[in-house]
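hi! just following up on the protien thing from before. the input was this:
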Amino acid sequence: MAKIGIVTDSTANLPQAALDYWGIRVVSVGVTISNDTYEEGVNITAPQVAEAMRRKLAVTTSRPPPSVFEEVYRELADEGCKAVISAHLSADLSGTFESARMAADRVKTKVVAVDSRSISMGLGYGCLAGARAAANNESLEDVTAAITQTAARSRVLFYVNSLEYLRRGGRIGAAERWIGSALAVKPILQLASGRVQPLEKVRTASKGLARLAELAGGYAGDQPCSVSVMHLDAESRAIELATKLRAGLPQADVSIGELGSVIGVHVGPGTLAAIVSPAADR
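and the predicted 3d structure came back as:
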């Protein structure tokens, strides 16, 4: 079976160790603070973004240009890949997928551009499933299916301190109707059909954490699954949430990670997320 390369973007939030082990290539999404532009995962960190936001500096994101993807695709071809799958965050949240698709049309190597309809470890779990399938010499179609099906099964839930950052970036979706609610109300959101959707409202951060644990646990059920607890500037609460999940889901592989700088720009400091990925045979 021909070697298949896997490419994703930095919003997948995959640990470097996993990227290295599976040989997954990452294209960085851009972050601009005031007039300075950085590359996520290269020269900007999530804590730096959180600090800039607290200082009320202008912080924006930008998709990678197609030329960057072209370079990566050609490098993989030079390394012996006969085909490449380039999987990215939801096209409703970013133009990154469109850049990947445009680049795919400009290279000789067979490139399948995939809109995962997910983000963070929802996308990350999909890429890991694809990499495992590729390592098992599965077909291009089967590796692509492993990515899309795993991303589709994965549920992305998150609590934010404020909807303001999502509103500023234009990613707020149907949750916009909650703008103007009582200041004490804290939203729990989900990613559904590639878009941010409102789920519930709670009154305090502690209730938000407890409800995230309940929702994630309910989706996981009693079957094997992987759960990623992700945060931006909320490490202690992330540890607390992970502890609750480990106690309630002994069959789950629960990990803690930091939301990347790009996602952080749009959700703001204090965000806590739980991404649940059920086992494939569930």
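DSSP finds ten helices and 13 strands in the chain.
The domain at 155-278 is CATH 3.30.1180.10 (Hypothetical Protein Tm841; Chain: A;domain 3).
cheers
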